[in-house]
Amino acid sequence: MDFDLPEELEEYRKKVREFALREFTPELAEKCDREEKYPDELRKKTLAEGLVDFSNPWKTMIAIEEMCRVDPGLGISATVPYFGAEVLMLHGSDHLREKYLSRVAEGKAIMGLGVTEPGGGSDVAGLKTNARKENGKYIVNGGKMFITNGSIADFFVMLVRTSPPDDPKKRHHGLSVLVVEKNFKGFDSNQLKGKLGVRATNTAELILNNVEVPEENLVGEEGKGFYYIMEFFNISRVFVAAQSIGIAQGALDRATAFLMNEESRGHFVGEERKFKLAEIATRVEASRLLMYKAASYLFNYRPNPMITSMAKGYASETATFAAETAMEITGATGLQTDLERLFRDSKIMEIWEGTSEVEKIVISRMMMKGDKNE
Amino acid sequence: MNDQTEMMMDNIRQFAQANINDIALKIEREGVSEDLYNSLIQQGLIGANLPAEMGGAGLDRTSYDAILFQLARASPSVAFHVFMNNSIILKILEKASKKDMIGQIVSGKIRLGLIPGNIIEGSSEKSNIIIEPSKMNIYIGKENASLVDGMPELLKSKSLGLRGLKTDLFTSIKDGEKLLPYGDVEKIWNEASWDAAAIFLGISEGALEKAIEYTKVRKTFNFPLKDYEPVAFRLSELKSELEILKNTLFSDDSKEQMGMMLKTISAEFARRATKYALQFHGGYGYLEDFGVEKFYRDAVALNALMFRPILDKRALAASIYGEKSGYL
User: Fold this and answer.
1) Are B120 and A119 inside 8 Å of each other by CB?
2) Which CATH architecture has domain A87-223?
3) Mean pLDDT, consecutive 10-residue segments, chain B of 328 residues?
4) Every domain of chain A and the residues it spans
5) N or C, which end of chain A has less CB nearby within 10 Å?
6) Whose CA is closest to B85, among B134, B31, B35?
7) Chain B residue with minimal CA distance to A320?
């Protein structure tokens, strides 16, 4: 068993870190946070330097971690233009992949994933947005909520109901995935402002009023959408673990620097604060190892949803623990630095892509099914 | 809870309903308005805990803490404004026999800003936090609390919490009129432990009430959130802890040691309670419109301003052991 990443990935990590330290300036991070503004120039620079490569998920995971370590709002913004791409990569027709994904890869388009709805966050199968077929088109009505890239994306991979469930207990039947463009008539979006954190990222509500979607924009098979999205969550949760570990590592970096500075100035640093630092460091390390395990299963085509949920759930709770504990260690200084932004950014990790509660449901169900990794 | 305290709880709850609840989000976005400042003065909330001979209302400890508790439930910023004036600024002026100045503050003719400086942990000489900058400010330095005349040169601030108040950073402090030696300010700080606990518990109640109401109506998988064990059990446990802590807060006990104990526990409790309250709101909790994220932010920001993880715990340890402890 080797706990080190291959040298190529370690080199890549260094390259991403150098980029983030150079481009994620305090001024840009502060401005995007204050103004809730998406840093589009940063997206283009990240692409131009070849730092986001979705054909190599290990690199993607490391890029996300290293960028979020410097600034989560900017880091997520720079790595999220492809959000939902895996659904198209795995199940989209050649035509859809060529038409949509190539534009995103070239930096000419941004995409998003439309799953969550106003009335149902965790309850994906309970969604209300429906699509009826009419004259070779789907007519989509409904709404989506908390959609990342919602008001800047050119198109969305969207989960909709195309037929009623064949059994009331099987609500996940009859769901399908469509590609919906923002330019389709009847589509509208409202940016959600006043978020606690990750304010550089764009989040919006989508309104779908008789939106006409060509039949060819169906992704994969009709009625299989729920499975495609659950499969996607199994991937995206590893990336949220990477965001979380980036935040936790960033908090650890800042708390460590603070205590070292205190000592160098001759100020007393007792063991109480050092122990807290040790607790953060231990949890960061444990989270990272769990993420590597989940990634190893997933990227070798043997996804293990239980380990993935453990990795995402534990890493996200580590992010909030690390940020809050770092605030405690640094006291009033923390209030005056970007640590306070990390603290605000960290909380969403326990909410998006499956709340901590949902992750525990997945883990316990699989444990009790005997579906453990033994 | 004695009758006077119970009456105060009702009065301030009604005051908050009439003057704060509907504009709580506006306070976070735009700050406390002049109208609200004036209402606090007219209601007699500034100077509430000062003796009548100093121009205050002479309320007992629990009645005063009822004010802070109820204000914090609605707006932690407003509660901190009252705390900062009553528990720190006016107490320093009282001990320094600045009766005229107290009269002017209590009547709303002047306001003083506070530069907590050395009384809080983690502040540095290079950048000090100032709260409610004014023409005159109280600065707590290494050796004295002093009255600093003139507006300091301000830097751009970052505000995690207390967004309803003006907070800023600055570098240069002019010499001012010495008011009290640091040791006396430390004593005032320790005596204010009960008041800080009242704010931490008010924040906790404000957040938990929102979470309990929200989980009654928000459905997932066809059932209200409250019907799920992890939600109902966790919120019930937190509410139970809160009620027990409130019993201590509003008991007749006013010993300094008990105040320090309560503050230590309440500070941690507020962080935990607000975190769960936000979590059970899901994505909506992350938006300011739902009014719960401010409690989460303020609980942590106020931990940095009102609770000193090392110095306060050392004081507590010394009171438990009866001698200097926990200093290695």
Assistant:
1) no
2) Beta Barrel (2.40)
3) 92 96 92 93 95 90 97 96 96 94 94 90 73 90 88 66 81 83 94 96 98 95 94 98 97 90 96 98 95 96 89 91 93
4) 7-79, 87-223, 227-368
5) N
6) B134
7) B275
